[in-house]
Amino acid sequence: MKMSLISAALAAAAVFGAASGADAHGPTRQKVSETIEINAAPEKVWAVVSNFQDGSWIPVVAKTEGTGGNAPGAKRTLTLKNDATVEEEVAKFEPEKMTLMYRIDKVDVKVLPVTNYSSWLIVTPADGGKSKVEWRGAFYRGYPNNDPPPELSDEAAVAAVTGLYKAGLENLKKQIEAGN
Amino acid sequence: MRRPRPEAPALPSPRPPAPRRAAAALLAVLLAGAPPAAGAARADEAFVTSQPAETLSVVDLASRRVVATLAIAGKPAGIAVSPDGRRAFVTSPDGKALTIVDAAARRVERRVEVGGGPLGVAVHPSGSPAYVADWYRHRVVAVDAASGRITGEVETGDSPSGLAVTPDGALLVSADRDSDQISLIDTASLTRLGTIATGKRPFGVTIDAGGRRAYVANVASNDITVVDLAARTVVATVAVGERPYAVALAGGLGFTTDQYAGTVTVFDLATFAKKAAIPVGDYPEGIDASRDGSEVYVASWEANTLSVIDTATLKVVKEIDMADGPRAFGLFVRRTD
Fold first, then answer.
1. Closest CB from A27, A31, A118 relative to B52
2. Read out DSSP for B54-103?
3. Superfamily for A2-178?
4. CA gap A54, A76 in Å, rounded
5. What pTM value is reported for the model?
6. Shortest CB distance from A91 goes to which of B119, B178, B260?
7. Count of domains forming chain B
8. Residue B60 has pLDDT above 70, yes or no
């Protein structure tokens, strides 16, 4: 019963998406920000998070393939451990501010229930030679039309991205601190 | 037709939880209590919607300070201040409502349930009605400013977004985002006179002071369509930064908010030559000019700032901190004299 509702909702989303174009989206862009402190120098943390061609610090990622390095316009395709893929592109690369901004060009809402997604990775110095990493996101929910089903609502989108960021940052911390 | 809800209670103070919001409210109270300088005319104000924060902030443009903050439920996005400065009209897409604000008293007069997905809003030069674009039901509704009654509606293309009215009040223009066109609507009869093809995904639309040209920001084709309203022809297509959202006009120049580029592109309105790309906070969205054209104000949704651009030097001269997610989609500068 529940599955059929989800399928119907996804089918509806696909139909409306086709009718009104890939850029159609919900009314209210959402924001998520997660931060973690890592016991390593900012340069060392930045070297990992700014390497757009290696997304292995994100736990769900199995493989990264791409072109263009870290420069604006650089592309990567993340293959996830469940075989789904996410296509992403660098929007801004600002090493002087230790800030990387990138967007998702293509993802199925069944994988991540968002559209028009951008995110930022920002490294700043913390006390005692440590680092602070902030992962920010801006996106619309997966359902472009009014009155979304719960699986594709604003809340579902925020929950999915928050979960991704928390898990990613915790794994980043673990990986870098283990290498110290 | 849907009946509007009776007058909603005013919500004088912002929601309490975030410390930053509380600090802003305290600041607003402190500043509101301070008397204006003796003999000085009050400066104009910016009425800025902050979508995730669910507030409407009033910024005194001379002192560059937030002087009042109102709670507006339903993720407020669109804004239109009446030319006489009396009222502000705020759309809440998530609340499916239009909130009518007494601008001088900083008080919610009423909240009108308009249904659908209210986003773009514009007000007739006489101060009423307010026109609200319904993103989902592909129409514009007219709302009487004093009573809050819905007095009419008119069909548009798909997902109407930005709205603008000519200074003589005769013509309403809607940017029909998912039809790649603008609709021209006769305000007296609320009938659609015709459509004009634009670039891809037109979002914001701005009409010049003479009512001659409309400037339409095309989000997906990264350009501005310039339309001669009388001839109903496209005069020019101007390439700007990535994902232009809206346009402001000042001192013979056009200023566009380029959402993805994080810039304001400046172009000459006579030659259409590009003059500058001014870096501002990420996701610049709402943009409006001061009445004298000396400044342009830009709300940056991601950076939580209102940037002040000097239109002579084309530099950012001030970044004013705003509540989370400033959007201010529409004409948000209010005259106070």
1. A31
2. TEEEEEETTTTEEEEEEE--S---BEEE-TTSSEEEEEETTTTEEEEEET
3. START domain (3.30.530.20)
4. 9
5. 0.85
6. B260
7. 1
8. yes
